[in-house]
Amino acid sequence: MTLATASAQVSGSLADRYDQDGYVILENVLDRSELDALLAETVRICRGELGEIDGAVPSSPADTDDEVIRRFLCVHYPHKLSDLMLATMRHPVVVDALTQVIGPNVKAMQSMLFVKAEGKPGQAWHQDEMFIPTRDRSLTAAWIALDDATVENGCLWVLPGSHRPGIIYPNREHDDPRYDCTVESYDFPYSDTDAVPVQLSAGSVLLFNGYLLHKSLPNTGRHGYRRALANHYMSAESLLPWTLPDEGTTMAQADFRDVVLVAGRDPYAYKGTEERRRPRIRPDREGGCDR
Ligand SMILES: O=C(O)CCC(=O)C(=O)O
To answer: Does 110 contact ligand 1 (Cβ within 6 A)?
Structure first.
């Protein structure tokens, strides 16, 4: 199934379109068997069979798969639980596209597995570089649709070209029930009428820039999920000051090393890698936003 996106992208190379719009769609990257394997792995992850997830409500063996997975809005860092999720982070078609928009040396630092059953909220306007600050503005997301992502079930919306000024807009807490508890960006020179929904068929991938303003709306479908795996990447040449500097180091040296090299070489391999994050759930609004 091919779902048309409302976006009219300029023609040109993948890298040209990415530079112009801040995003590019890779059609039909994963086939049905790859998708089925990832959906089955999602069940195992949500059942806790592959390891503990901070904040998750334990399921009982008597719970059906549906009962188990629909409790989750999103699991952060599934690649730390699952070899399949880790292998998907290295998907050759995605990595090839990443090297075209980032450069030959690419590392990953985050994965997020969205389940988002009907009724679950979206995420307000934001820029990923606000949360994951690279030094060289190379942050790139690969958002893999595991189900058809539609306006009804809460696909992503983007503000094309909003990455180009290279500005991180201010953010604030909000009480909008359409969105989860994550802060929202505001005071940017675009309105909702500039926004474009990115409808994707299952197996297609949206690659987007860390400065691109994007959001998602709730899953308003009557039944079903909007499952997606979002992986984040950047240039391996850039330090990643995602954590406070450790004792004895300065902000200029801060470098998050809980990373996975997916292409080329890591000039900082001499530092080794270290575990800084563990799998956890993303809170939705059901328990209120803990502030
Ligand atoms: O999938 C969603 O609903 C939100 C994902 C998102 O905003 C992101 O990956 O940065």
So the answer is: no
By alpha-carbon position, which residue is closest to atom 9 of ligand 1?
230
23 close to ligand 1 (CB < 6 Angstrom): no
Q: Does the pLDDT at position 276 exceed 60?
A: yes
Q: Are 7 and 160 in contact (CB under 8 A)?
A: yes
Beta-carbon contacts of 251 under 8 Å, excluding residues fewer than 6 positions away, are 241, 245
Tokens (6 digits) for 244: 């406070």
216 lines ligand 1 (CB under 6 A): yes
**For ligand 1, what atom is nearest to the CA of residue 141?**
9
User: Domains in the chain, please, with CATH?
Assistant: 19-37+73-281 (2.60.120.620)
The pLDDT confidence band at residue 9, using thresholds 50, 70 and 90, is low
Q: Is 78 left (phi over 0), alpha (psi -120 to 50) or beta?
A: alpha
**In the prediction, which pLDDT does 235 show?**
98
pLDDT digits (tens, 9 = 90+) for 70-128: 999 999 999 999 999 999 999 999 999 999 999 999 999 999 999 999 999 999 999 99
Question: What is the per-residue pLDDT for 287?
Answer: 66
Is the minimum distance from the CB of 114 to ligand 1 under 6 angstroms?
Answer: yes
Ligand 1 in reach of 141 Cβ (< 6 A): yes
